[in-house]
Specification:
Distance between the termini: 51 Å
Structural class: mainly alpha
CATH architecture of the largest domain: Orthogonal Bundle
CATH class of the largest domain: Mainly Alpha
Number of helices: 15
Strand content: under 5%
Strand order of the largest sheet: 1-2-3
Shape: elongated
CATH topology of the largest domain: hpI Integrase, Chain A
Amino acid sequence: MRGSIVYQVQTIFKDSGINRIGSSKHTDKEAFRNSTDEKVNWHEIGQNTGIYSYSTADDYREIWISAFKYAKAHFGVKDIETISGEHLKAFLMAKINEEVKHATFMQYAAALEKLAVALNMYAEKQETGNKYDFSDDIDVARKKAHKTLQRFDGVRSYENPGELIEKLDNPIYKLVASIQYFGGARIDEVYGIMPDSLQADNRVTVKGKGGKVRDIRVKPEDHKLLSEILKKDGHFKFDKGKYLYHLKMASDESDQQYNASHGLRWNFAQNRMQEVQKEGKVHEQGLVIVSQEMGHERADITEHYLKK
C-alpha cells in the first residue's frame, strides 16, 4: 500500500470492516460463539470482532499510527501491509523503556492485537493472501511489562531520593538519576543528550514527548561532568535497562519502594512546587511553572505528581 502513514492507517480502518461503530458488540460476540461448537476464550472473540465505539477507534488508530511511525523510523517499513510482529514487539519494548503506566501499556497491546484483526480482514477483502498474527511477539512484551511496569496509581515519589542516588555506585547512572531528580527529566530525555544541548546557567535542552523542546536545570557539577563526557564521546548514552536495574538495587539498599526512574520526576515536582511557593507564587501560578518545566501540556497532569 502506498500513501502516508495516516492515510494507510485510515484505509485499513475504513476498508477492512473492522469499523463496527453503531453495531452491537454483544450481538457480534454471540454470533461468533454460536458459529462454532468449540468453547472460545476472550482472545479468540477479540480476533473475530471489530471496534464498536468512537473513543476506542480514535485511541486505537493513534496507537497504530505511533507503531507504524516507529517501524518506519527503526526498520524502514513504508507499507503497513508489511509490518510484522517483530516490529510491534520492538515498539512495545520501547514503551516499556519509557516507563509508561501498566494500564497504558495494556491499551497499546490490545490495540496492536486488533491491528492484526484489521489487517487480516483487509487482506481477505483484497485477496492478497497475507496473514497476520502478532500474538506471540506481543505476549513477549506483555510478560516483560507485567514484571517491569508499575501497576498502582498512588504516590510514586521516593522517600529519600538523595540517599537513593548515593547508593548508585555507577557514576553514569548516578548522573542520570541526579539529572532526573534535579531537573525533572524523563529517562528518554536524558538519553542521547548532545553537545549542543548544553546551555549556559547550568541548563540542558531536552526533547520530550511529541518532540517538544525545553530547558531543564542541572546541578553545576552535573553540567560540568556532562560537558566532559560529551567532549569525549560526542553524545550521552547509557543502557536504560541496566540503569533501571541499578536503581531498583539502590532502592532496596536504601529501604525504599522502587518507583522506577519516574519516581524521581515526582520528587522534582514536589520539591519545585515548594520552591516556587516560597518565592511567593500561589498554588495555581506554581502549577503552571512546574507543568512547563516538566513538559506537561495540562496542569492537571502535574497536579497528580503533587500527591503525597
